[in-house]
Amino acid sequence: MASPEQKPVSLAGDENFRVLVETIDDIIVIGDLEGRILYANPATTAVLGYTPQELAGMMVLDLNAASMREEAAVILTEMFQGTRQTCPLPLQHKNGSLVPAETRAWMGRWNGADCIFGLCKNLTKEQEALQKFDRFFRMNPALMAVNRLPDRTFFDVNDAFLRTLGYTAAEVIGRSAAELDLFVDAEMQERVSAELREHGRFREVELKVRAKDGRIIEGLFSGDLIQSQGHTYFLTVAIDITERQQTLRELRAALAEIRELQGILPICAGCKKIRDDSGYWEQVETYIMLHTRAQFSHGMCPDCMVRLYPDFDRKEA
After folding, report:
1. By the 8 A CB rule, do 60 and 77 touch?
2. Could you tell me which residue, 92 or 128, shows the higher pLDDT?
3. Judging by DSSP bridges, how do beta strands 27-31 and 153-157 pair with one another?
4. If phi over 0 gives left and psi between -120 and 50 gives alpha, with beta otherwise, what is residue 27?
Protein backbone atom coordinates (compact mmCIF):
# COMPACT_ATOMS: atom_id res chain seq x y z
CA MET A 1 0.00 0.00 0.00
CA ALA A 2 1.32 3.46 -0.85
CA SER A 3 2.07 5.76 2.08
CA PRO A 4 0.10 9.08 2.38
CA GLU A 5 3.17 10.99 1.17
CA GLN A 6 3.56 8.86 -1.96
CA LYS A 7 1.58 9.40 -5.13
CA PRO A 8 0.33 6.11 -6.62
CA VAL A 9 2.09 5.27 -9.87
CA SER A 10 0.12 4.30 -12.97
CA LEU A 11 1.65 1.25 -14.62
CA ALA A 12 -0.88 0.67 -17.40
CA GLY A 13 1.34 2.09 -20.10
CA ASP A 14 4.54 0.42 -18.96
CA GLU A 15 5.52 -2.25 -21.50
CA ASN A 16 7.71 -4.08 -19.01
CA PHE A 17 4.81 -4.27 -16.58
CA ARG A 18 2.51 -5.62 -19.31
CA VAL A 19 4.98 -8.35 -20.20
CA LEU A 20 5.38 -9.23 -16.54
CA VAL A 21 1.68 -9.59 -15.76
CA GLU A 22 0.98 -11.58 -18.94
CA THR A 23 3.80 -14.09 -18.49
CA ILE A 24 3.95 -14.58 -14.74
CA ASP A 25 2.64 -17.88 -13.35
CA ASP A 26 0.83 -16.13 -10.49
CA ILE A 27 -2.69 -14.77 -10.83
CA ILE A 28 -2.93 -10.99 -11.20
CA VAL A 29 -6.37 -9.37 -11.03
CA ILE A 30 -7.17 -5.67 -11.28
CA GLY A 31 -10.54 -4.42 -10.08
CA ASP A 32 -12.28 -1.08 -9.66
CA LEU A 33 -13.03 0.33 -6.22
CA GLU A 34 -16.38 -1.47 -6.19
CA GLY A 35 -14.67 -4.80 -6.74
CA ARG A 36 -15.54 -5.42 -10.40
CA ILE A 37 -12.79 -7.15 -12.36
CA LEU A 38 -11.22 -4.82 -14.94
CA TYR A 39 -8.38 -7.11 -15.97
CA ALA A 40 -7.18 -10.64 -15.27
CA ASN A 41 -3.92 -12.00 -16.64
CA PRO A 42 -3.62 -15.26 -18.64
CA ALA A 43 -2.56 -17.16 -15.51
CA THR A 44 -6.04 -16.51 -14.07
CA THR A 45 -7.60 -18.39 -16.97
CA ALA A 46 -4.97 -21.14 -16.83
CA VAL A 47 -5.35 -21.74 -13.08
CA LEU A 48 -9.07 -21.08 -12.50
CA GLY A 49 -10.56 -22.11 -15.86
CA TYR A 50 -12.58 -18.94 -16.57
CA THR A 51 -12.41 -17.30 -19.99
CA PRO A 52 -11.46 -13.61 -20.20
CA GLN A 53 -15.06 -12.86 -21.19
CA GLU A 54 -16.40 -14.64 -18.09
CA LEU A 55 -13.93 -12.86 -15.82
CA ALA A 56 -14.94 -9.47 -17.22
CA GLY A 57 -18.41 -9.84 -15.75
CA MET A 58 -17.32 -11.05 -12.30
CA MET A 59 -16.49 -9.43 -8.97
CA VAL A 60 -13.08 -9.95 -7.37
CA LEU A 61 -14.70 -11.79 -4.46
CA ASP A 62 -16.38 -14.18 -6.92
CA LEU A 63 -12.98 -15.87 -7.19
CA ASN A 64 -13.55 -17.20 -3.67
CA ALA A 65 -16.07 -19.90 -2.77
CA ALA A 66 -19.46 -18.45 -1.80
CA SER A 67 -19.06 -19.75 1.75
CA MET A 68 -15.80 -17.81 2.15
CA ARG A 69 -16.65 -14.48 0.51
CA GLU A 70 -17.71 -12.72 3.69
CA GLU A 71 -14.46 -13.70 5.40
CA ALA A 72 -12.50 -12.74 2.28
CA ALA A 73 -14.09 -9.26 2.29
CA VAL A 74 -13.02 -8.72 5.92
CA ILE A 75 -9.46 -9.81 5.17
CA LEU A 76 -9.34 -7.60 2.07
CA THR A 77 -10.34 -4.58 4.18
CA GLU A 78 -7.65 -5.42 6.74
CA MET A 79 -5.02 -5.60 3.99
CA PHE A 80 -6.02 -2.16 2.70
CA GLN A 81 -5.82 -0.83 6.27
CA GLY A 82 -2.32 -2.26 6.63
CA THR A 83 -3.20 -4.53 9.55
CA ARG A 84 -2.80 -7.70 7.51
CA GLN A 85 -0.32 -8.78 4.84
CA THR A 86 -1.94 -11.76 3.12
CA CYS A 87 -5.17 -13.67 2.67
CA PRO A 88 -4.76 -17.44 3.14
CA LEU A 89 -8.17 -18.41 1.73
CA PRO A 90 -8.22 -20.67 -1.35
CA LEU A 91 -9.63 -19.57 -4.69
CA GLN A 92 -12.36 -21.48 -6.49
CA HIS A 93 -11.92 -23.06 -9.92
CA LYS A 94 -14.73 -22.75 -12.45
CA ASN A 95 -15.53 -26.44 -11.85
CA GLY A 96 -16.02 -25.79 -8.12
CA SER A 97 -12.75 -27.27 -6.86
CA LEU A 98 -10.64 -25.21 -4.48
CA VAL A 99 -7.19 -23.97 -5.43
CA PRO A 100 -4.83 -23.30 -2.49
CA ALA A 101 -3.52 -19.74 -2.76
CA GLU A 102 -1.96 -16.86 -0.89
CA THR A 103 -3.31 -13.45 -1.93
CA ARG A 104 -1.89 -9.95 -1.51
CA ALA A 105 -3.84 -6.80 -2.39
CA TRP A 106 -3.02 -3.09 -2.58
CA MET A 107 -4.35 0.15 -4.04
CA GLY A 108 -3.00 1.63 -7.29
CA ARG A 109 -4.05 3.21 -10.56
CA TRP A 110 -5.06 1.57 -13.81
CA ASN A 111 -5.90 3.48 -17.01
CA GLY A 112 -5.94 6.73 -15.06
CA ALA A 113 -8.38 5.54 -12.37
CA ASP A 114 -7.96 4.29 -8.81
CA CYS A 115 -8.08 0.52 -8.63
CA ILE A 116 -7.32 -2.59 -6.62
CA PHE A 117 -4.38 -4.82 -7.52
CA GLY A 118 -4.53 -8.46 -6.44
CA LEU A 119 -1.63 -10.92 -6.66
CA CYS A 120 -2.50 -14.56 -5.93
CA LYS A 121 0.25 -17.15 -5.61
CA ASN A 122 -0.89 -20.61 -6.62
CA LEU A 123 0.12 -22.93 -3.78
CA THR A 124 -0.97 -26.17 -5.47
CA LYS A 125 2.59 -27.51 -5.78
CA GLU A 126 3.40 -26.46 -2.22
CA GLN A 127 0.18 -28.11 -1.03
CA GLU A 128 1.03 -31.31 -2.88
CA ALA A 129 4.51 -31.30 -1.34
CA LEU A 130 2.96 -30.74 2.08
CA GLN A 131 0.55 -33.63 1.55
CA LYS A 132 3.44 -35.89 0.52
CA PHE A 133 5.37 -34.88 3.63
CA ASP A 134 2.29 -35.48 5.76
CA ARG A 135 1.90 -39.02 4.38
CA PHE A 136 5.63 -39.64 4.90
CA PHE A 137 5.34 -38.24 8.44
CA ARG A 138 2.25 -40.26 9.40
CA MET A 139 3.32 -43.60 7.95
CA ASN A 140 7.03 -43.52 8.81
CA PRO A 141 8.09 -46.38 11.11
CA ALA A 142 10.58 -44.05 12.81
CA LEU A 143 9.40 -41.87 15.69
CA MET A 144 8.83 -38.33 14.36
CA ALA A 145 7.84 -35.14 16.16
CA VAL A 146 7.52 -31.44 15.34
CA ASN A 147 8.07 -29.02 18.24
CA ARG A 148 7.28 -25.33 18.25
CA LEU A 149 9.94 -22.84 19.34
CA PRO A 150 10.72 -21.19 21.64
CA ASP A 151 8.51 -23.06 24.14
CA ARG A 152 9.44 -26.52 22.70
CA THR A 153 5.86 -27.77 22.93
CA PHE A 154 4.84 -30.62 20.64
CA PHE A 155 3.04 -29.32 17.54
CA ASP A 156 2.58 -32.74 15.94
CA VAL A 157 3.76 -36.34 16.37
CA ASN A 158 3.36 -39.37 14.15
CA ASP A 159 1.70 -42.72 14.80
CA ALA A 160 5.01 -44.50 15.50
CA PHE A 161 5.76 -41.97 18.25
CA LEU A 162 2.40 -42.58 19.93
CA ARG A 163 2.51 -46.35 19.46
CA THR A 164 6.06 -46.76 20.78
CA LEU A 165 5.73 -44.46 23.79
CA GLY A 166 2.14 -45.39 24.62
CA TYR A 167 0.60 -41.89 24.54
CA THR A 168 -2.43 -40.47 22.77
CA ALA A 169 -2.09 -37.33 20.64
CA ALA A 170 -4.19 -35.38 23.15
CA GLU A 171 -1.72 -36.25 25.91
CA VAL A 172 1.26 -34.96 23.90
CA ILE A 173 0.21 -32.03 21.69
CA GLY A 174 0.78 -28.69 23.40
CA ARG A 175 3.08 -30.12 26.06
CA SER A 176 6.87 -30.23 26.18
CA ALA A 177 9.23 -33.19 26.58
CA ALA A 178 10.13 -31.85 30.02
CA GLU A 179 6.47 -31.85 31.09
CA LEU A 180 6.14 -35.46 29.95
CA ASP A 181 9.49 -36.37 31.57
CA LEU A 182 10.50 -38.08 28.34
CA PHE A 183 14.28 -37.90 28.41
CA VAL A 184 16.12 -40.06 30.92
CA ASP A 185 19.26 -37.89 30.74
CA ALA A 186 17.93 -34.31 30.77
CA GLU A 187 21.45 -32.87 30.73
CA MET A 188 22.33 -34.76 27.55
CA GLN A 189 19.07 -33.62 25.98
CA GLU A 190 19.95 -30.00 26.77
CA ARG A 191 23.34 -30.41 25.09
CA VAL A 192 21.62 -31.73 21.98
CA SER A 193 19.16 -28.80 22.06
CA ALA A 194 22.08 -26.36 22.30
CA GLU A 195 23.70 -27.97 19.24
CA LEU A 196 20.41 -27.66 17.38
CA ARG A 197 20.13 -23.95 18.22
CA GLU A 198 23.75 -23.29 17.24
CA HIS A 199 24.03 -25.35 14.06
CA GLY A 200 20.39 -25.82 13.03
CA ARG A 201 20.72 -29.60 13.04
CA PHE A 202 22.15 -32.65 14.81
CA ARG A 203 22.69 -36.19 13.61
CA GLU A 204 22.52 -39.71 15.07
CA VAL A 205 22.73 -38.99 18.78
CA GLU A 206 21.87 -41.87 21.11
CA LEU A 207 19.32 -40.83 23.74
CA LYS A 208 17.08 -42.74 26.11
CA VAL A 209 13.42 -41.78 26.48
CA ARG A 210 10.84 -42.91 28.98
CA ALA A 211 7.57 -44.40 27.73
CA LYS A 212 4.28 -43.66 29.45
CA ASP A 213 4.43 -46.99 31.30
CA GLY A 214 8.00 -46.38 32.47
CA ARG A 215 9.79 -48.54 29.90
CA ILE A 216 13.10 -47.14 28.69
CA ILE A 217 13.37 -46.79 24.92
CA GLU A 218 16.79 -46.30 23.36
CA GLY A 219 16.75 -44.18 20.21
CA LEU A 220 19.10 -42.83 17.57
CA PHE A 221 17.99 -39.19 17.20
CA SER A 222 18.46 -36.64 14.40
CA GLY A 223 16.90 -33.18 14.16
CA ASP A 224 16.56 -30.08 11.96
CA LEU A 225 15.24 -26.57 12.44
CA ILE A 226 12.50 -25.71 9.93
CA GLN A 227 10.74 -22.45 9.05
CA SER A 228 7.06 -22.31 8.12
CA GLN A 229 4.81 -19.26 7.73
CA GLY A 230 7.01 -17.11 9.93
CA HIS A 231 7.32 -19.66 12.73
CA THR A 232 10.32 -21.77 13.74
CA TYR A 233 9.95 -25.47 14.54
CA PHE A 234 12.30 -28.36 15.00
CA LEU A 235 11.71 -31.73 13.41
CA THR A 236 13.03 -34.74 15.30
CA VAL A 237 13.39 -38.26 13.91
CA ALA A 238 14.30 -41.20 16.16
CA ILE A 239 14.98 -44.82 15.25
CA ASP A 240 14.11 -47.27 18.02
CA ILE A 241 17.34 -49.19 18.66
CA THR A 242 16.29 -50.79 21.96
CA GLU A 243 16.40 -54.37 20.65
CA ARG A 244 19.60 -53.71 18.74
CA GLN A 245 21.30 -52.34 21.83
CA GLN A 246 20.13 -55.31 23.89
CA THR A 247 21.52 -57.67 21.25
CA LEU A 248 24.83 -55.79 21.30
CA ARG A 249 25.00 -56.03 25.09
CA GLU A 250 24.39 -59.78 24.93
CA LEU A 251 27.03 -60.12 22.22
CA ARG A 252 29.57 -58.18 24.27
CA ALA A 253 28.81 -60.37 27.29
CA ALA A 254 29.28 -63.50 25.20
CA LEU A 255 32.57 -62.19 23.83
CA ALA A 256 33.71 -61.41 27.36
CA GLU A 257 32.94 -64.98 28.38
CA ILE A 258 34.85 -66.30 25.39
CA ARG A 259 37.83 -64.14 26.29
CA GLU A 260 37.74 -65.58 29.82
CA LEU A 261 38.05 -69.07 28.35
CA GLN A 262 40.88 -68.15 26.01
CA GLY A 263 44.45 -69.18 26.81
CA ILE A 264 45.89 -72.33 28.37
CA LEU A 265 43.79 -73.94 31.13
CA PRO A 266 45.68 -76.16 33.61
CA ILE A 267 43.80 -79.48 33.65
CA CYS A 268 44.66 -82.57 35.69
CA ALA A 269 45.82 -85.48 33.52
CA GLY A 270 44.16 -87.91 35.90
CA CYS A 271 40.87 -86.59 37.28
CA LYS A 272 40.45 -83.86 34.63
CA LYS A 273 39.82 -81.09 37.15
CA ILE A 274 40.70 -77.52 36.08
CA ARG A 275 42.80 -75.19 38.20
CA ASP A 276 41.27 -71.70 38.44
CA ASP A 277 43.07 -68.36 38.83
CA SER A 278 43.10 -68.77 42.63
CA GLY A 279 44.84 -72.12 42.45
CA TYR A 280 41.79 -74.23 43.34
CA TRP A 281 41.00 -77.37 41.38
CA GLU A 282 37.39 -77.54 40.16
CA GLN A 283 35.35 -80.01 38.21
CA VAL A 284 35.15 -79.12 34.50
CA GLU A 285 31.41 -78.47 34.65
CA THR A 286 31.79 -76.29 37.74
CA TYR A 287 34.48 -74.18 36.08
CA ILE A 288 32.47 -73.71 32.88
CA MET A 289 29.30 -72.83 34.80
CA LEU A 290 31.19 -70.18 36.78
CA HIS A 291 32.76 -68.60 33.71
CA THR A 292 29.93 -68.90 31.17
CA ARG A 293 26.16 -69.06 31.17
CA ALA A 294 26.16 -72.71 30.14
CA GLN A 295 24.04 -75.15 32.17
CA PHE A 296 24.64 -78.89 32.40
CA SER A 297 22.32 -81.90 32.44
CA HIS A 298 24.00 -85.14 33.46
CA GLY A 299 23.71 -88.34 31.54
CA MET A 300 26.02 -91.27 30.73
CA CYS A 301 27.72 -92.22 27.50
CA PRO A 302 27.56 -95.85 26.28
CA ASP A 303 31.24 -96.56 27.06
CA CYS A 304 30.88 -95.46 30.68
CA MET A 305 27.64 -97.38 30.98
CA VAL A 306 29.43 -100.61 29.97
CA ARG A 307 32.42 -99.88 32.19
CA LEU A 308 30.44 -98.94 35.29
CA TYR A 309 27.41 -101.18 34.86
CA PRO A 310 28.61 -104.24 32.94
CA ASP A 311 25.59 -106.28 34.02
CA PHE A 312 23.08 -103.66 32.75
CA ASP A 313 21.28 -105.00 29.71
CA ARG A 314 20.17 -102.10 27.52
CA LYS A 315 17.77 -104.34 25.65
CA GLU A 316 15.97 -105.15 28.88
CA ALA A 317 15.85 -101.43 29.71
Report:
1. no
2. 92
3. unpaired
4. beta
Any residues with CB less than 8 A from the CB of 19 and at least 6 apart, and which? none
Closest CA to 216 of 178, 182, 179: 182
Q: How would CATH label the architecture of 15-122?
A: 2-Layer Sandwich (3.30)
By the 8 A CB rule, do 285 and 296 touch? Answer: yes
Taking residues 27-51, report their average pLDDT.
93
Please, which residues have CB within 8 angstroms of residue 108's CB and are 6 or more apart in sequence?
Answer: 2, 8, 9, 10, 11, 114, 115, 116, 117
Kind of pairing between the strands at 91-92 and 98-99: antiparallel
Nearest to 25 by CA among 109, 98, 93, 124: 124
Of 261, 317, 315, the residue nearest 287 (C-alpha): 261
CA distance 135 to 192: 27
Provide CATH 3.30.450.20 ranges for the chain.
15-122, 127-243
Which CATH number applies to 127-243? 3.30.450.20
pTM to 2 decimal places: 0.53
Average pLDDT, the chain: 85
Q: Is the peptide bond before 150 cis (omega within 30 degrees of 0)?
A: yes
Report the C-alpha gap between 120 and 228 in whole angstroms: 19
Give which of 82, 36, 38, 81 is closest to 62, Cα–Cα.
Answer: 36
